[in-house]
Amino acid sequence: MIRLWHVAQSRSLRVVWMLEEMGAQYDLIACSFFDRSLRGADHLARSPAGRVPALEVDGQVMCESGAILLYLAECRAPHLRVPEGAAGRAAFLQGVHYAETLGAHLANLTQHHIVLREDAMRSPTVMRLEAMRLENALRAIGPGWVAGEFSVADIALGYSVWMARRFVVLPADAAVYADLVHARPAFQRALVKDGPAQIYTRDFYPPPQG
Predict the structure, then answer these.
(1) Would you state the pLDDT for residue 35?
(2) Could you give the CA distance from residue 2 to residue 59 in angstroms, rounded to a whole number?
(3) pLDDT at 210
(4) Is residue 84 packed enough to be buried (19+ CB in 10 Å), middle (13-18) or exposed (0-12)?
(5) Residue 104: enclosing H or E segment and its boundaries?
(6) Strand 54-57 with 26-30, pairing
(7) Assessment of whether the complete model's pTM goes beyond 0.90
(8) DSSP characters for 154-170?
(9) What angle do CA 96, 164, 162 make, to 5 degrees?
(10) What residues does 55 pair with on adjacent strands?
(11) Is there a contact between 72 and 56 (Cβ–Cβ < 8 Å)?
(12) Of 13, 50, 125, 163, whose CB is crowded by the most CB atoms within 10 A?
């Protein structure tokens, strides 16, 4: 049995999506950022930083979503990876890791708009800069699948583009790409399993006016 510790709307949604693409049987364990469950000794043994995802698979536990995607593709879903030496391998690797570039901007914007609840804690300048940087980074995305055919690079990147709509208006090609993501049946199933919103309670969080 595969077991996944998950918080709605977080990066663990990437793993839910992956498992749905695989048609895997798994146990989804819903967690929250707003209680102490992720700081308990049991969870810290799974994820030392007290984060999600945490995945128990093949007698081991993994807690980095990018590594989880690559491992599952390598061991259980080879059709969702581009093998070494194959055409599209460079684009595949670029897509997997470019998702982390987008993720850094998303994390900073989430911190400022949502986690820092008091206006005095926030930096309007950082919020505007991060939104601008995110929008610029999104200009490299789309309109088609990263390596020509759908792969785990698109799960990694697609989640980041999907979340970016909370903070910026997507450039035209990125918007086409987001529509491709949304149309995948496995992504739709993952959204259903994701659960009630815990992080983003609004559709859009605009940068403060300068």
Answers:
(1) 87
(2) 9
(3) 72
(4) exposed
(5) helix 89-110
(6) unpaired
(7) yes
(8) HHHHHHHHHHHTTTSPP
(9) 65
(10) 4, 62
(11) no
(12) 13
Structure confidence at residue 172 (pLDDT)? 98
**Residue 10, C-beta contacts closer than 8 angstroms, at least 6 positions apart:** 33, 52, 53, 198, 199
Burial of 35 (0-12, 13-18, 19+ CB in 10 A): exposed
Residue 37: predicted pLDDT: 87
Percent of the chain surpassing pLDDT 90: 94
- Give the residue among 57, 67, 71 at the shortest CA–CA distance from 5: 57
CA distance 203 to 163: 10
Averaged pLDDT for residues 105-129: 95
Joined together, the tokens standing for residue 68 give 């989880």
List the end-to-end C-alpha distance of the chain, in Å, as a whole number: 52
Average pLDDT over residues 29-46: 93
Q: How is residue 7 written in tokens?
A: 């918080």
pLDDT digits (tens, 9 = 90+) for 164-204: 999 999 999 999 999 999 999 999 999 999 999 999 999 99
CA atoms 44, 47, 49, 51: torsion sign: negative
The pLDDT score that the predictor gives to residue 136 is: 98
**Could you tell me which of 23, 159, 170, 29 has the C-alpha nearest to residue 99?**
159
For the record, the structure tokens of 205 come out as 């969080």
